[in-house]
Amino acid sequence: MSDPRPRLTSSTLDRLHKNVGAPGYDRRKVASGVAHFGPGVFFRAHVAWHFDRLLSVDPRWGVSAISLRSGGLAQALGEQDCLYTLAELAEPARFQIIGALTEYVSGADDPARALDRLVDPSTKLVTLTVTEKGYCLDAGGALDWKHDDVRRDLAGGGLLYSVVGWLTESLWRRREAGHAPFTVLSCDNLSDNGPKLRRAVIQFASERRGPFFAQWIENEVRFPATMVDSITPATDEALKRRVAEATGLADEAPVQRESFTQWVIEDSLGPDAPDLARAGAILTGDVALYEQAKLRLLNGAHSALAYIGLLAGQETTRDAMAHRIIGPFVERLMRNDSAATLRAGGGLDAQAYVSALVERFLNPAVRHTLSKIASDGSQKLPYRILNPVRDLLRAGLSVDRPATVAAAWMRYAVGRQRAGEKLDDPLALQLEKIAAACTDDAAGDTDRFLSLRSVFEADLAENPRFVAAVRAAYGRLVGDPLNLEA
Ligand code: CS2
Predict the structure, then answer these.
(1) 129 ligand 1 Cβ < 6 A
(2) How far apart are CA 97 and CA 288, in angstroms?
(3) Taking Cα atoms as reference points, which of 237, 189, 228, 239 lies closest to residue 365?
(4) Do residues 119 and 170 touch, judged by C-beta distance below 8 A?
């Protein structure tokens, strides 16, 4: 511990500086009604913040955080009574202590404790932020039976690895114990996240425990779709210093996010569910409308800024958005291409949405690194860029700009490989192999990448318009990373 200030704990809360928000409820009375998989920064800055608000009016909805891997924040949060600081990146910044976590359990190190929590009848809701790759789905969105974690969980060796394995096992035990199931709320950037997870769990449960149990899940368990949104840069040492100065207490697990936050939830949480509308969530029958706009406009633009920006030597989303060539290109991608693929009706003003995004990307208070967004491209591109490409092709519209983003991702992979830097992607090995074989010949190189069926399904990889557009864009980028349009 380098910071000389006292550590943030329940007993130091009275030493917080004025103007720092603290839990407005008695934490000793809080019960764990929620279990959460994937307690990374996004969860702590967004999902847990909503429950923190709810706890002021209803103490049943504290959150047990379960990490799927070892280590992580167990020690830091353990030493802080599971308290941490949220820095809201406005001008001026606001700081608030979040008290919604009741415990932090490493599912890998202490699986029995994690399972007990999931099976406990007081756990009514299981939320997840495990990123796209955490769902173990194939390119078509179905459960990937070849995935190592799925295979190991199917074999049933005792330990659990995949999210579908954890959910199936805990639902099985609840049913055996005569407890009602929990509701499962996926909070990741996947289109149709709830229904996709539901299908995967039902398929897995049928193989693992038989069709009768799968049928029980189908009839009894709710998997509402959700859309989550708040730009959440990673925690770094600068944030820790800033938080300690502003609050007067040292915190080893603070998080930061922009002020904007949105949680849209399908209005089918069932009885006995937290009243998340009271915490600021939007409950609606039409999550798809919000989710499509968010994935294609915000996340699509993010990936474009990341790959193109990194090729051109930029560091943050703000740098890339403010760049005289990249910014206007990404704005055209949003306004002309992605927006044209959004479902009509529903009252969403896509152009106003884009204008708000441009402001958010340019927010000087937010330092969001492109390298973080660039990770896991093989998992992100299909939702953000390739699904819109399908719609553009169907409508007979140009796919040049989204194809440029796909080509920039390929060039990014080649560049990392040549620089001897590892790719942060579940397909890193395959991508590095492809990148190593690349010679800067547009046709040969793009063919290699397009042969990755788990990213480019045959409908795209064999579509002459898409292939031609990717080749042309790749060829332009080889010569000049800013040569974005013909
Ligand atoms: C980003 C998202 O890292 C990424 O891929 O695009 O985390 C993005 O910041 C959030 O979805 C915003 O809500």
Answers:
(1) no
(2) 33
(3) 239
(4) yes
Determine if ligand 1 sits within 6 Å of the CB of residue 373: yes
Q: Let me know how long the chain is.
A: 486
Please state the three-class secondary structure of 119-180 as a single string: HCCCCCEEEECCCHHHHCECCCCCECCCCHHHHHHHHCCCCCCCHHHHHHHHHHHHHHHCCC
- Alpha-carbon distances, residue 405 vs 15, 49, 73 (angstroms): 49, 34, 35
In this prediction the pTM is 0.97
| Ligand 1 neighbourhood includes 302 CB (under 6 angstroms) | yes
**Tokens at residue 241, please?**
């210093």
202 CA distance to ligand 1 centroid (A)? 28
Ligand 1 touching residue 385 (CB < 6 A): no
Pocket lining: 229 vs ligand 1, CB cutoff 6 Å:
yes
Give the residue whose CA is nearest to atom 10 of ligand 1: 231
68/218 Cα distance (integer angstroms): 25
CA angle 220, 174, 26 (to 5 degrees): 100
231 lines ligand 1 (CB under 6 A): yes
- Per-residue pLDDT of 196-225, as tens digits, reads 999 999 999 999 999 999 999 999 999 999
Contact 144/137 with Cβ under 8 angstroms?
yes
From atom 8 of ligand 1, which residue's Cα is the shortest distance away?
Answer: 231
190 CB near ligand 1 (under 6 Å): no
Question: Cis bond leading into 111, ω under 30°?
Answer: no
What per-residue confidence (pLDDT) applies to 273? 96
Span 115-172, pLDDT tens digits:
999 999 999 999 999 999 999 999 889 999 999 999 999 999 889 999 999 999 999 9
Contact 269, 186 (CB under 8 A): no
Ligand 1 centre distance from Cα of residue 120 (Å):
33
**177, 119 contact by CB (below 8 A):** yes
Measured distance CA(309)–CA(409) in Å, rounded: 11
Q: What is the pLDDT of residue 344?
A: 81
